[in-house]
Amino acid sequence: MQSNDFSAFSLYMIVIGFLGLVFCGMIAKYISLWFQAVVSGTPISPFNIIGMSLRKIPPRLIVSARINAFKAGLKTISVNDLETHYLAGGHVNDVVRAMIAADKANIPIDWRQATAIDLAGRDLFDAVKTSVNPKVIDCPEKGSVILAVAKNGIELKVRARVTVRTNIKQLVGGATEETVIARVGEGIVNAIGECDNHQMVLASPQRISKLVLAKGLDAQTAFEILSIDIADITLGDNVGARLRTEQAESDLQVARAKAEERRAMAVALEQENVAKVKEAEAEVPLAIAEAFRSGQLGVFDHQRYLNLKADTEMRESIASKGEAALHDA
């Protein structure tokens, strides 16, 4: 009986010891994080660290981010701020790293603004890096060219390079690189279109750059344009000559159509006159018959009319044969 009691007691002690080891292992993880924070000079309550796990927040991520920010001099960022940003779906480490870089580069940015940029889907660290080290954007993308036409009708193919710096204040809600490229392309087309001839553009490309840069194309964008450099200019087609040729062909077709219309109207008028003559000739026998009945025309008068008509037809026939003989000669 005593042997059975001893065996049960031993089993209980083994289970309690195992649970104790598991509990100590769990506590050791939190204790190590608490000790790391204390040693780093930014103590965090162990109950707060345990509460992070209960709230499905990785404690090591928050503690490491807090220590990095505190050591970099960003002492205003609290543990609660880090937890809130993580729960909102933000990238805690990326934001802290970007704020440290911005602080070292003397770029003013606060935690609220930084988290808003991160939650908006923008790469805050890349934006800070671009603010320190401006980047160059090809306008348009490689493999394409901007087509512009001067006043003399010569087409120019242009490629430009735009140097930009990120404007942190405009990063949320500001237009992206695509907008900058589109605006610069539009500005180049307008500037070349204002030139009297293509020689002016080829002689001084920097004039185009100055005109485009003066338009303030970076308004309401996430970037500040530092410079616009014309990388390449090549001649294209003579668009003006082609357009004038097409216009001349169009005018010729219109003139031909109008001439055909006038000819058709003349033919119709001629046919109408012939019909009227035939109608009048058809009325002549009726008039003669009426003159006979009324006694206004005698038989001899009618005979003289027929003789005169035959003599006229003979003279016209002789005249036409003479003209034909002269033409053949």
Describe the structure.
The chain is an alpha+beta fold and 329 residues long. Among the domains are: 11-132, no CATH class; 135-241, Band 7 domain (Tetrahydropterin Synthase, Chain A, 2-Layer Sandwich), CATH 3.30.479.30. It is built from twelve helices and four strands; from the N terminus they run αααααααβββαααβαα. It has helices at 2-39, 46-54, 59-71, 79-87, 92-104, 111-119, 124-132, 177-193, 198-203, 205-213, 239-294, 299-328, and strands at 135-139, 146-149, 154-166, 223-238. Strands 1, 2, 3 and 4 form a four-stranded antiparallel β-sheet that branches. A hairpin with a 4-residue loop joins strand 2 and strand 3 (154-166). The longest helix is centred in the C-terminal third of the chain and has 56 residues, at 239-294. The radius of gyration is 50 Å and the shape is elongated. The N and C termini lie far apart (161 Å). 21% of the residues are buried. The mean pLDDT is 80.
